[in-house]
Amino acid sequence: MSVEADVWLHNGDLLVGHTENSLTPARSLRSLYLDPLASILARQNVPTVSSAHSKRSATPFTSNTSGVFETNTSVSLTLLLDIKSDGQATLPIIKQQLEPLRAKGWLTHTEGSRLLPSPITIVGSGTTPFDLIQSESSTRDVFFDVPLSNLWGDENTATENRTEYSSQNSLYASAQFSKVIGAPWHGVLRPEQVEIVRGQVQAAAALGLKVRYWDTPAWPVSTRDHVWDVLVKEGVGVLNVDDLAGASKRSWYS
Fold first, then answer.
1. Are 85 and 106 contacting, i.e. CB atoms less than 8 angstroms apart?
2. φ and ψ at 141, to 5 degrees?
3. 98 close to 34: Cβ distance less than 8 angstroms
4. Which site in 26, 49, 52, 206 is 20 to 30 Å from 179, CA atoms measured?
5. How far apart are CA 171 and CA 180, in angstroms?
6. Contacts for 104-107 with beta carbons within 8 Å, 24 or more apart?
7. How far apart are CA 94 and CA 56, in angstroms?
8. Among candidate residues 56, 80, 53, the one with its CA nearest the CA of residue 66
9. Residue 187: Cβ within 10 Å count
10. Beta-strand (E) ranges in the chain?
């Protein structure tokens, strides 16, 4: 499960909005995401005699805590931060504001070569600088959203020797669907388009990453559903969904 926020560094604070003109101090990263998540996790992890053992045995998190979802406490929520301002200046502020979650052990992180899952997984997209993420060599709790074009060449083949990316520093490999796959033909993806999806998913999986496409077709609904079905069948790691109501009505595991 994943949620996405467009983040801007503005007057020393991190604000959330699709455009810079839409920013307001009332819509900050802390007020809309970080503080509410911290409150949810605090409620989910109130120590009691009856729940302490069951929570520890039911979740995979190294901190022995429950996640944000009441119906499945073992799922880590991915918070995808799409940095819109200068990444070199913005990422350090993000890391500062993550400290309350970090101090509680609620952030997925690395220790040496080990990846330790926790209730919240932070991923940086947009202008997030990979060099800053990679520089955290000992302990890392912000992961990279790799441009899928870095893994997939112009000739629709996997690029080679991209060993700098791995599950130790990255989670997603993302691309704009309309740019790398193109529009469906009369509402249906052509076989060669499906082959590209399959190849890109395999190229990312070879590095331990999950493919994420954004700007997938939203209309008509039959085309949207067809594309969703193909992407799920081919093994994409996450679907970008704007129509949450429509997505919630689908039988994803039937």
1. no
2. -130, 15
3. yes
4. 206
5. 19
6. 104/38, 104/41, 104/63, 104/65, 105/62, 105/63, 105/65, 106/38, 106/41, 106/63, 106/65, 107/141
7. 29
8. 56
9. 14
10. 2-10, 13-16, 77-83, 109-111, 114-116, 120-126, 142-147, 170-176, 210-214, 238-239
Six-digit token string for 194: 């499906």
Handedness of CA 63, 64, 65, 69 (dihedral sign): positive
Classify burial at 198, counting beta carbons within 10 Å of its beta carbon; exposed 0-12, middle 13-18, buried 19 or more.
Answer: middle
In the structure encoding, which two tokens stand for residue 113, read together? 């070569």
Lookup result for tokens 């496409």 = 213
Threshold 0.85, pTM exceeds: yes
Written as tens digits, the pLDDT of the chain (254 aa) is 899 999 999 999 999 999 999 999 999 999 999 999 999 999 999 876 555 455 444 556 766 789 999 889 999 999 999 999 999 999 999 999 999 999 999 999 999 889 999 999 999 999 999 999 999 877 899 999 999 988 886 666 666 667 799 999 999 999 999 999 999 999 999 999 999 999 999 999 999 999 999 999 999 999 999 999 999 999 999 998 888 888 888 877 65
- Residues listed for the chain: 254
The first and second tokens of residue 86, run together, are 């200068």
